[in-house]
Specification:
single chain, about 110 residues, 2 domains
Length: about 110
């Protein structure tokens, strides 16, 4: 099994987990507020936290889907800046990496 296949399997599992989490959050959004004003205040506060978690999950899901597309098109593991191969160790740690270490470092300096 190639490293790309291993990463792809890992990403698919993560994608499935995120989709379940997003589904649960969407279900929580569908619940109506309690009639008790104190309880409403707590629910609204929880809603703010839920919004952040929801946004982060959607962003991560988008990264995973883009990475899986690159793997499917056999374009995965190449730096989009310089065209060199991204080291396998970097891809294992950051599967959605699209820049090699040098290009990522240069981008952070800007």
């Amino acid at each position: 099994m190639t490293i790309h296949n291993k990463i792809s399997e890992k990403l698919i599992l993560k994608r499935d987990e995120l989709e379940r989490r997003i589904g649960k959050i969407n279900g929580d959004y569908a619940n109506t507020l309690d009639s008790d004003s104190k309880e409403q205040a707590v629910e609204l506060e929880n809603s703010e936290v839920l919004d952040v978690i929801h946004r982060e999950a959607l962003q991560e899901l988008e990264q995973i889907n883009k990475t899986l597309e690159l793997i499917d098109r056999d374009e995965y593991g190449t730096c989009i800046e310089c065209g060199l191969a991204i080291p396998v160790k970097r891809l294992e740690i950051i599967p959605h990496a699209t820049f090699c270490i040098n290009c990522a470092t240069e981008r952070e300096k800007k």
